[in-house]
Write a structure and sequence with these properties.
Helix content is 34%, strand content 21%. It is of the alpha+beta class and 629 residues long. Among the domains are: 191 residues, 2-Layer Sandwich (Heat Shock Protein 90), CATH 3.30.565; 128 residues, 2-Layer Sandwich (Ribosomal Protein S5, domain 2); 92 residues, 2-Layer Sandwich (Ribosomal Protein S8, Chain: A, domain 1), CATH 3.30.1370.100. The strands form 5 sheets. Strands 1, 2, 3, 4, 5, 6, 7, 8 and 9 form a 9-stranded mixed sheet that branches. Strands 10-11-14-12-13 form a 5-stranded mixed sheet, sandwiched between helices. Helix 15 crosses helix 20 and helix 16 packs across helix 19. The protein starts with 11 loop residues before the first helix and ends with a helix. About 15% of the residues have low confidence.
Length: 629
C-alpha cells in the first residue's frame, strides 16, 4: 500500500500550469487569447506572426491603448484584469476577455515578453517571464500599443508539448481561429504572417458582408443569401445578420458554420439546431449548411462565463434565440431560387467538367427503379384538368388536393407494337394533339427527367423527386386538418414481422390513426391490417411492403413516435412510395401540371429527403460549352 500523503497547498507555478491546461490547449488557444486582448484594448490594426505553426513563436502586435509600466507585473498575475470588478459585472460582460487567466497561464508554460506603450508614455516598457519567473521591467523602443511574444510553447511542460501536432496542422488551427475573430470584427485590420510570408491581409473598415466573404471565399458570393432579423427592443431582444449558403454547397460537417454572439465566436447547439431545422427537407440530413450568423443581444441575456476558453455560451431564453434564428434563415430560403446550378454541388467546376464527368450530378438517389409492366398497368395520372392556381406564391390545400386525386386514363401506357406511332396518333385525345401541334414546352427524357427552360437557362427536373415533394406538401397540409381517409379491407391482410417490429407496433397508435391505418397484433410474429390509407391504395402502394418498411422505420428511429419529426418521416416515406417513378411515362398534360406545381409548391427545389429535384444549366454555361464566350 502507498503511504498516506499529507494535504499541501500547491505552489504558485504548479497551480498556474494546471490552470493553463484549461486555457492553453495549443498555439491556436494562445493566438485567440492574445488577439481578443488586443481587441479589448481598442486596436484598429492587429498583426499576428507565427513560426513553426506557433509552437516556436507567436507574436501579436496591436495599436491599442497599451499597458502602463506600473501595471505590467499585474498583467501576468492570475485573476488580474481591468475588465470586471464585482460579481455584478459577470451579468453584463461586454469584452472578449475578462477572466484574467490568459497571460498568467501562458507565462507559466512558455517564454513570454510584453512590450507596451500608452499614449502618455515617452517610450515603451517591457517585461519578460520564463515559465512563471518574471524579470525586472526594462525600457524599450516601440509605438503606442502592445506587442506580445510567446516563444517555445510548453517548454516548461514537455509532456504536453509531445501532444502537439505537426507545425502545418497547428498553423491551420491558428488560421481558423484568426479567421473567425476577423469575421467578428470587420472594422479592425488584420495581417497574418507565417515564416515571413503573409497568409491573410484584411484592411480595416470593412463592412460585415465584405469581411465575411473575404474570409470564407469571394467565389461563394453568388451562392450565399443574406439573413436578417431585428427584435432588439428589450432585455431579451435579438438583432441578427448573416449569410447562409444554398443547399447545393452544404458540407459533410459543420466546419463551414460560423456563429458569433456579441462579437464572440461560439459553438452553440441551440443555434446549430435552428439552422439545421430551417434547411429541413432542402438537403440530405447528413449534410450541414454553410452559414455566417452574427447575433447581437443584451449582455444580461447571455452568459459567456460557462467555459474556460469562452467557446460556449448559455442563453437566458434559448427558445427565443432558436425561434429568431430558425425563422430568419427559413424566410431567407423561402424567398430564394434554390435550384442548383450545374457544377455547384459543393465544388467549383466548369460546365464541361460537370457534363462530361461522373454523370451523377443529375440522378436523384431517392428515385426508385422502373416499374414492371404489371405495375405500369396500375399507373394512374395525378393531375386533374382543372388544377386551380395557388395564390400569394404558395400552393393552397385545395389546389394540392385536386392535384393528388387520381384520374384513370384510358391508356396510361401506349401499347407495345410496331404500329405504335400510328396507334398513338389515332387514339390521342384532342387536347393532346392540340398541345403537340404547338412548340413543346417540356420534354420527358428517358421517362425519368423533364427538360424545360426558364429565364436563366435550361432546367432538368427529376420527375420522381419533384412529385414526391408535391405529395409530401399535400399530405402535411391534409394532416393539419385531421386524420387521412382510410379504406377498410374485407379481410385483414396478415403480415409477418420480426419481434422488434411487433414491439414497435404498440408505440405507433396515434401515428397510425393519423395516417389512416388500422393494425393489430395477430400472433407472436404477425400483424393484421384491417384498414389502409385511401391515398396509398389509389397510388397502387401495396399493404405488406409498406407496413414492413413502416415498422422497420419505427424500430430504427431515434425520435419519439408521437413527435412531429416522426410524423414527417412517415409522410416522407408515403410520398416516396406513392410518387411516380423513374420509367413512368407522363402525358404532355401531366408534364405541364407537374411543372406548374413546381412553381407553386414551397421548397420544390428539393425532395423531402433533401436531394435536389432539379438543376439549372445557365445561358452563360451554354455559351461557354458552344465556345460563344
Amino acid at each position: 500500500m502507498n503511504p498516506r500523503r499529507p494535504i499541501r497547498k500547491l505552489s504558485k507555478t504548479v497551480a498556474s500550469q494546471i490552470a493553463a491546461g484549461e486555457v492553453v490547449e495549443r498555439p491556436a488557444s494562445v493566438v485567440k487569447e492574445l488577439v481578443e486582448n488586443a481587441i479589448d484594448a481598442g486596436a484598429t490594426r492587429v498583426r499576428v506572426e507565427l513560426e513553426a505553426g506557433g509552437i516556436e513563436l507567436i507574436r501579436v502586435s496591436d495599436d491599442g491603448k497599451g499597458i502602463p509600466p506600473e501595471e505590467l507585473p499585474l498583467a501576468i498575475e492570475a485573476h488580474a484584469t481591468s475588465k470586471i470588478e464585482t460579481t455584478a459585472d459577470l451579468d453584463r460582460i461586454a469584452t472578449m476577455g475578462f477572466r484574467g487567466e490568459a497571460l498568467a497561464s501562458i507565462a507559466s508554460v512558455a517564454r513570454l515578453s510584453i512590450r507596451s506603450r500608452t499614449v502618455d508614455d515617452q517610450g515603451a516598457s517591457e517585461i519578460r517571464v520564463n515559465a512563471g519567473d518574471a524579470e525586472e521591467i526594462r525600457p524599450a523602443a516601440g509605438p503606442v500599443g502592445t506587442t506580445i511574444e510567446v516563444r517555445n510553447l510548453f517548454y516548461a511542460t514537455p509532456a504536453r508539448r509531445k501532444f502537439l501536432k505537426t507545425p502545418q496542422t497547428e498553423r491551420s488551427r491558428c488560421l481558423n481561429a484568426l479567421r473567425e475573430i476577423a469575421m467578428a470584427s470587420p472594422a479592425i485590420g488584420f495581417v497574418i504572417a507565417s515564416e515571413g510570408k503573409t497568409l491573410l491581409d484584411l484592411p480595416l473598415g470593412q463592412d460585415p458582408k465584405t469581411r465575411a466573404l473575404a474570409v470564407i471565399g469571394k467565389e461563394l458570393e453568388a451562392q450565399m443569401l443574406e439573413v436578417s432579423a431585428d427584435e432588439f427592443d428589450d432585455a431579451r431582444g435579438i438583432a441578427l445578420w448573416g449569410l447562409v449558403g444554398l443547399p447545393a454547397i452544404a458540407r459533410p460537417t459543420a466546419i463551414a458554420q460560423h456563429v458569433f454572439v456579441n462579437g464572440r465566436p461560439v459553438r452553440d447547439r441551440t443555434i446549430q439546431h435552428a439552422i439545421k431545422e430551417a434547411y429541413r427537407g432542402l438537403m440530405e440530413h447528413s449534410r450541414y449548411p454553410t452559414a455566417v450568423l452574427m447575433l447581437e443581444m443584451s449582455p444580461e441575456a447571455v452568459d459567456v462565463n460557462v467555459h474556460p476558453a469562452k467557446a460556449e455560451v448559455r442563453f437566458r431564453d434559448s427558445g427565443h434565440v432558436h425561434s429568431v434564428v430558425h425563422r430568419a434563415v427559413k424566410d431567407a430560403l423561402r424567398k430564394a431560387d434554390l435550384t442548383p446550378m450545374v457544377g455547384s454541388f459543393g465544388r467549383s467546376v466548369s460546365p464541361m467538367d460537370s457534363l462530361l464527368g461522373s454523370g451523377s450530378l443529375v440522378r436523384s438517389a431517392g428515385a426508385d427503379q422502373p416499374r414492371s409492366s404489371s405495375e405500369e398497368e396500375r399507373l394512374v395520372s395525378f393531375f386533374r384538368e382543372d388544377v386551380p392556381r395557388a395564390t400569394q406564391g404558395r400552393i393552397s390545400y385545395e389546389s394540392l388536393r385536386a392535384a393528388m386525386e387520381p384520374v384513370h386514363r384510358e391508356e396510361a401506357i401506349e401499347p407495345d407494337s410496331t404500329d405504335r406511332d400510328e396507334q398513338a396518333e389515332t387514339h390521342q385525345p384532342e387536347a393532346t394533339r392540340a398541345f403537340e401541334a404547338k412548340p413543346m414546352a417540356h420534354l420527358q427524357v428517358h421517362q425519368s427527367y423533364v427538360v424545360t427552360q426558364d429565364d436563366e437557362g435550361v432546367v432538368i427536373v427529376d420527375q420522381h423527386a419533384l412529385h414526391e415533394r408535391v405529395m409530401f406538401e399535400y399530405l402535411m397540409e391534409r394532416l393539419g386538418r385531421g386524420p387521412l381517409e382510410s379504406q377498410a379491407l374485407l379481410v385483414p391482410e396478415v403480415i409477418e414481422v420480426s419481434p422488434a417490429q411487433l414491439a414497435a407496433l404498440d408505440t405507433l397508435g396515434e401515428l397510425l390513426e393519423a395516417i389512416g391505418i388500422e393494425a393489430r397484433e395477430m400472433g407472436p410474429t404477425s400483424v393484421g391490417v384491417s384498414a389502409f390509407p385511401s391515398f396509398l391504395f389509389d397510388r397502387g402502394v401495396e399493404v405488406q411492403p409498406f407496413m414492413n418498411d413502416l415498422l422497420e422505420l419505427a424500430v430504427q428511429s431515434a425520435v419519439p413516435p408521437t413527435s412531429e419529426e416522426a410524423l414527417r418521416d412517415v409522410v416522407d416515406m408515403m410520398s416516396c412510395k406513392a410518387a411516380v417513378k423513374a420509367g413512368d411515362r407522363l402525358s404532355p398534360e401531366e408534364l405541364n401540371r407537374l411543372m406548374q406545381l413546381r412553381d407553386e409548391v414551397e421548397r420544390s427545389s428539393s425532395c423531402p429527403h433533401g436531394r435536389p429535384t432539379s438543376i439549372r444549366l445557365t445561358l452563360t454555361d451554354l455559351e461557354k460549352l458552344f465556345h460563344r464566350r
